[in-house]
Amino acid sequence: QVQLVESGGGLVQAGESLRLSCAASGRNFRINNMGWYRQAPGKQRELVASITSGGTTNYADSVKGRFTISRDNAKNTVYLQMNSLKPEDTAVYYCNAYITRGGWSLNYWGQGTQVTVSS
Q1: Dist. CA 28–CA 26, nearest whole Å
Q2: Considering only CA atoms, which of 59, 60, 115 is closest in space to residue 88?
Q3: What is residue 63's three-state secondary structure?
Q4: Which residues partner with 94 through β-bridges?
Q5: Tens-digit pLDDT profile for the chain (119 aa)?
Q6: How do beta strands 18-25 and 10-13 pair?
Q7: What pLDDT shows up at residue 28?
Q8: Where are the beta strands (DSSP E) in the chain?
Q9: Can you tell me the distance from the alpha carbon of 49 to that of 96, in angstroms, rounded to the nearest whole number?
Q10: Distance of CA 15 to CAs 28, 38, 39, 89, 114, Å?
Q11: Shortest CA distance to 80 belongs to which of 96, 62, 67?
């Protein structure tokens, strides 16, 4: 079994920063794309940022220039550095990883971490 464990959420004021981490654990797996999604109350889950195994990144327009996604393949960990946070960034943030294991490739999700930005 593969698990994704997130950390780093919290309550901050507008303009401040947070760094989210997500570590994958398990045996005999390979991580392909990784990403961060978020879901605000009453809204659909949306992609925030993604990164391929080779390091190519993609960002939602709303976070370009403020958020940076990165990964440490040796640690099976993906990070999301969030700067200049705004109240509209308030949401539950979910880590996602497309993982190959035992000949199968599946999407895995973390449990979610709350990010709250006060004005």
Answers
A1: 7
A2: 115
A3: helix
A4: 37
A5: 899 999 999 999 999 999 999 999 988 899 999 999 999 999 999 999 999 999 999 999 999 999 999 999 999 999 999 999 999 999 999 999 999 988 889 999 999 999 999 99
A6: unpaired
A7: 86
A8: 3-7, 10-13, 18-25, 30-39, 46-51, 57-59, 67-72, 77-82, 91-101, 104-109, 113-118
A9: 10
A10: 41, 19, 20, 11, 17
A11: 67
> Which residue, chain included where needed, has tokens 């659909």?
44
Take residue 30 and report the two structure tokens written for it: 């390979």
- Residue from 34, 51, 33, 26 nearest 102 by CA: 26
For the chain, the residue count is 119
Report how far Cα 31 is from the mean position of its chain's Cα atoms: 14
Token duo for residue 58: 């993609």
The encoded tokens of residue 24 equal 């994958």
